[in-house]
Amino acid sequence: MYKIFLCLRYLRSRVIAYFAILAVALCVAMMLIVVSVMNGFLSKVERAAKGLFGDIVIESSSTEGVGLYDEFIAQLGRNSPEVEAASPFILVPCYLRIPGSNWSQIVQAAGIRLPERAAVTDFEKGLFVQAGQTSPTFDPPIAQALQRLEGQIKFIEELRRKPPRPTNPEDRSPDLVQRLDNALLAHLSARVILTRAKEAQPAIAEAYARLQAAYAESHDEPTDKTEAIQARLDELTGQAGWLDPSRHIILGLGIRGLSFRTDEGKTIRFICPGNRVSISLIPLGSGLTAAPSLNSRTFTIVDDCQTDVSSIDSEIVYVPFETLQELNEMHAAYSPDKSGEVVAPARCNQIHIKVRGERTDERRLEAVRANVEKYWRDFCAAHPEAMGGDASVLTWRQRQAAIVGPIEKQRTLTVIMFSIISMVSVVLIFVIFYMIVFQKTKDIGVLKAVGAGDFGVAQIFLAYGAAIGLVGSILGTVGGYYFVRYINPIQDAVDRWFAFRVWDREFFMFEKIPNEVDALPALLIVAGAIIAGLVGALIPALRAARMQPVEALRYE
Amino acid sequence: MSEPLVLVQGLHKSYRLGKVDLHVLRGVSFGLARGSFSAVVGASGSGKSTLLHLIGLLDKPDKGRIVFAGQDVTALPPRRRNGIRCRDVGFVFQFYHLLGELNVLENVLLPAKVDSSAFAWARKRRQARRRALEILDRLGLGERLKHRPRELSGGERQRVAIARALMNRPEVLLADEPTGNLDSAAGSGIMELLKQCNRRDGQTILMVTHDVSLADQTDRIFRLRDGRLSEA
Predict the structure, then answer these.
(1) Cα angle vertex B49, ends B45, B54, to 5°?
(2) Percent of chain A residues past pLDDT 90, beyond the cut
(3) Which of B97, B99, B164 lies at the smallest CB-CB distance from A553?
(4) Which is higher by pLDDT, B149 or A178?
């Protein structure tokens, strides 16, 4: 009984113990912040990789890609119950331009099928116009795009009116005002285009219905009537500026020069849904047997996408799969004779596969991957025209090994380094306890004189150390949790006040510092802090236990 | 004659002081009858306190044996020695040795807490508190329960120390120069208190002192000189 009693009393009455508690709290907070940010970084890499590739990816080793993907996906769906969904994917470098301006950039064009892709990845989560929709398309309702646009216009106008903050006179610099003006101009012109498109929609719908009826009349044979209606339809869609869905594009929100970020962390677009861009690419899918020529096409922007992975958002534009297939010359080749026989199937670069279940552990994923690989090899053996004999079948982690591996090593190294630094708290507790034991020598003598045993005396100081570890770790956990939770606003404030930015989104790939605290590492750190308190108190406690009562009572 | 409560036979104890062996006790033998009040007198450094510490099991003799209530306690394992120190021996020190973080009542309750596990304490807490209050009342400290030792006079502190020593109803009270740090008035008060404990409650007391006038007030006086004890 006396052990708990004296431990609590010493804890309350010894001011020096508060310094030990502070040291433990700081170390716990530091460890929690480092581990949370590193773990968050890794899980973001995982989410990003899964967001781009799904759980498993079949990747062609040649630019010509693999064929018969739809047949394989259908067969996989029938034979492999662990596969939830799969979707073909094309990725090809291209030259992105804004018609009528000097702006251009090399990016990657990703050919995807919507809404099929949403079943394989989290693509739909980062969309702007189609935010909150589970089945995104390349042809979102114009009204929806207009609504988003109005919101942005309002926001930019508010920003233009906002006075500079007293803490930062540079807040409304001429450069910023100019950029806001440019953005507003782009939005207003997009609004004109979208409004016109919306107004033209009934006429387009009516022309389309007439075209369908004319084809029905002629039994799908083109006639003068159908051609006249088609010409009118083309004219209307051309005037509307909202081209057919095969010519719609979704941009990554992060392509340099197409948007900027305000001090408040809001993204302002210079180009928005309704505007047009063109892409040009060398058709690598042709195998480059002859001298390559550029294939170009103009697209209407219908949406933009933010994955929160800077390297994806700044480099990728999404176009309809079949359109990119055609542009990259991966479409099916037919016999020149009149038989129309397919001599080479349509191809894609990759097949992305989603495995059933929300969270899939590595072992299960590897087992599914091995099955998929077996199915793929069998499929290629049965269909040589699939041309996928040397394609690799990888899990998202294997596909991203070059990124994930070093990050994991870095995390381990950082945790070790900070654990060593945290030893400071052990040393501090040791020093403080050694001092306390010296100060309490006579008390130890008295305790032994009234019958306390060696182990009992040691327990007082061990419990004291553990209590310091516990209190310190609780304070550190609370402090660390809130620091991690508000790490992005803290960084923004540091950036504003001292022009110093720790988290470079270009370097770290992500827009924001991960700010989630996992329970398990937090518990391990708390346990570690309590053990540190015990270890720090151990030698002084043993010294107290071994103290001879007579010597202790005589101690001056 | 009844068996003595404490029997000391051929006790030897030496200390090493630098390179010199200091032979403090050289075959000390004596007995303490139950309910007696005895004093050991001797010059400073004669080994009086050492003898007290050996009898109170705070130290171990080099040779000889100590019999406590018929039981040889010289070579008992530490746990049993702790138990005897806690329940059967009460110490009063010259410099009081109260715990500064605890108030008067808590200091007095300390031996009872040392003697109890957390569960046992929950059971006997009320009873122990009643006992502590009773002793403190008797020693005139009923109004000073919540005071810290630093807020008390020397005499009061020594009374708290006596109350603590009496808390577990020990068989023997060992007092090491209990008035050595007090003025004569306070010293007399403490001496009266010890006599009262002896006469009223039959408390066996062994007191070491260098003050012969105090020793004269006890039943038996032993003189310790050159490590040997003789009855005066």
Answers:
(1) 130
(2) 9
(3) B97
(4) B149
**Is the predicted pLDDT of residue A475 greater than 70, yes or no?**
yes
Q: Which of A442, A445, A452 sits opposite B82 (nearest CB)?
A: A452
| Backbone torsions φ then ψ of B158, nearest 5 degrees | -65, -30
Q: Which of A250-259, A540-549, B58-67 has the highest mean pLDDT?
A: B58-67
| pLDDT tens readout for residues A39-51 | 888 887 777 777 7
Cβ(A553)–Cβ(A442) under 8 Å? yes
- Maximum Cα–Cα distance across chain B: 53
User: Rounded distance, CA A456 to CA A299, Å?
Assistant: 80
Q: Return the sign of the alpha-carbon dihedral for residues A102, A107, A113, A114.
A: negative
What residue has token string 């004219």? Answer: A235
Model pTM greater than 0.80? Answer: no
- Of B112, B231, B96, B105, the closest CA to residue B170 belongs to B112
d(CA B30, CA B33): 10
Q: Taking phi first (over 0 means left), then psi (-120 to 50 degrees means alpha), and beta for anything else, what does residue A7 get?
A: alpha
Give the CA radius of gyration of chain B. 18
Q: Compute the nearest-CA separation of B1 from chain A (Å).
A: 31
Which amino acid does the sequence have at A528? Answer: G
The Cα B193–Cα B199 span in angstroms is 10
Tokens 């094309």, residue?
A90
pLDDT tens-digit readout, A453-466: 899 999 988 888 88
Quote ipTM for the complex. Answer: 0.91
Distance from CA of B45 to the nearest CA of A (A): 13
Nearest to A452 among B97, B98, B114 (CB): B114
Sequential DSSP letters for chain B: -PPPSEEEEEEEEEEEETTEEEEEEEEEEEEE-TT-EEEEE--TTSSHHHHHHHHTTSS--SEEEEEETTEE-TT--HHHHHHHHHHTEEEE-TT----TTS-HHHHHHHHHHHTS-HHHHHHHHHHHHHHHHHHHHHTT-TT-TT--GGGS-HHHHHHHHHHHHHTT--SEEEEESTTTTS-HHHHHHHHHHHHHHHHHH--EEEEEES-HHHHTTSSEEEEEETTEEEE-
Identify whether the C-beta of residue A325 lies closer than 8 Å to the C-beta of residue A113: no
C-alpha to C-alpha distances, A148 to A273, B30, B79, B84, B139, nearest whole angstrom = 9, 103, 80, 85, 87
* Residues found in chain B: 232
The whole-angstrom separation of Cα B103 and Cα B98 is: 9
The residue assigned the tokens 């589970």 is A134
Tell how strand A276-281 and strand A267-269 pair up.
unpaired
Least Cα separation, residue B231 to chain A (angstroms): 26
d(CA A204, CA A233): 6
Nearest CA in chain B to A7: B101
Q: Are strands B37-41 and B220-225 parallel, antiparallel or unpaired?
A: parallel
Q: Is the pLDDT of residue A163 over 70?
A: no
Sign of torsion over alpha carbons A288, A292, A296, A302: positive
For the cut 90, the answer to whether the pLDDT of residue B39 exceeds it is yes
- pLDDT, tens digit, for every residue of A55-72? 899 988 887 888 888 898
What residues of chain A lie within 8 A of the CB of B129, using their CB?
Answer: none
